[in-house]
Amino acid sequence: MIKTVLLTGFLGAGKTTLMQRLLAGRERTGVIINEFGDIHMDGALVRKEGIEMAELSNGSIFCACIKDNFVDALIEMSGKDLDVLFIEASGLADPSNMPTIMDGLAGKLGGRLSYLGSICVVDANAVLPLMDVLPAISAQLEYSKQIIVNKVDLVSESQLLQIEEAIRKIAPDAAITAARYCQVDAAAMLAAMEQQAGGPEGRETSNTYESRPVVFYLTCKEAVRREQLEAFLRDIAPEAYRIKGFAPTECGMIQVSISGDQIVLDQAPAGELENRIAVITRTGMRAMSAITAAIDSNGLKGSICV
Prior knowledge:
Blueprint: E1 2-8, H1 15-23, E2 29-35, H2 41-46, E3 51-57, H3 67-78, E4 84-88, H4 98-109, E5 113-123, H5 127-133, H6 135-142, E6 146-150, H7 157-170, E7 175-178, H8 186-195, E8 214-220, H9 226-236, E9 240-249, E10 252-259, E11 262-267, E12 276-281, H10 285-297, E13 304-305
Parallel strand pairs: 1-4, 1-5, 2-3, 2-4, 5-6, 6-7
Antiparallel strand pairs: 8-12, 8-13, 9-10, 9-12, 10-11
Helix pairs in contact: 5-6, 9-10
C-alpha cells in the first residue's frame, strides 16, 4: 500500500521547499507536480535519482481541464514499487474534490493507494489578506490535516497569533506548526497524519477553465545584467500572483522566485534548465501592458521577449 499525501499552499508559500525536505534521504518515492504554466521549475528543483515523477501543467489537477490526466497519473503511480506518493498541487488549487477523486478510484486501484490527507503551507506574511479574496486558500486550509505557517520571521508574535486564530476558524482539527524555510520534522508530521481522523467530505471544486489565471512567458534572447533583470521584475511584480523560472545573466543562469514583495534571485542549480520565466497574473491584459512598459523602461527591448 502506497501512502499518499497532498501538498497545497498559495503561490510562493514554500511547497517546493517542503517537498525537498520530504524527499531528503527517501527512496521508493513518487511525486506528482502540478503547475499552472508549462515551465517545470518545481520539477527541476526536486528531481533526483530514484524518484518516480510525473508533471502535469496548464491547469489545476482538480479542474475538469486536466483532472483526467491526474487520475491517469495516480493509476500509473499505483502500479509502481513505492512506499510514499507526494502530490504537489498548484498554488491556486482548490482541493475540495480530492476526497471524491480518491473515493472514485478506490475500486480501480484495489486499495493500492492509502490517502493520508493534505499538508498546507501558508505564507505568514501574506495569508490573511489572501483568505479574504481567494476562496481556494480557505479550501486548502479546510481540507488539511497539517498546516505549516511558514516565513514566521517576517511577522510579529501578535500577527502570528492572529493568523493561527483565523486558521482555527476554518480548520479547527488541523495541527499547526510555525516554521522558517519549512524547517519541520517531516517524518513526525507524516506519522501524525496516519493517526489523525479523516477530514471533511468532498464537494465541487472552484477550479474551472474560466477561473484559471493568465500566464505570460518571458524569454531572454541574450544574457542580461542581473541589476536590470531585478529592476524589471520589481516593476511587474505588483501585477502578478507569482513569477518564477530561470534567466541567463552575466553571472550565469539565475533562478527567479517572486511572491508578493518577496523577490529572490539565486544561482540556478546545475543541469539543463529552460530559459523562460512564467508570470502568473492577476490582471490579464493590464499585466501585459505593465510587462511591455517595464521592458522599455529598463532598457531590455530586444533582450527579453514575451
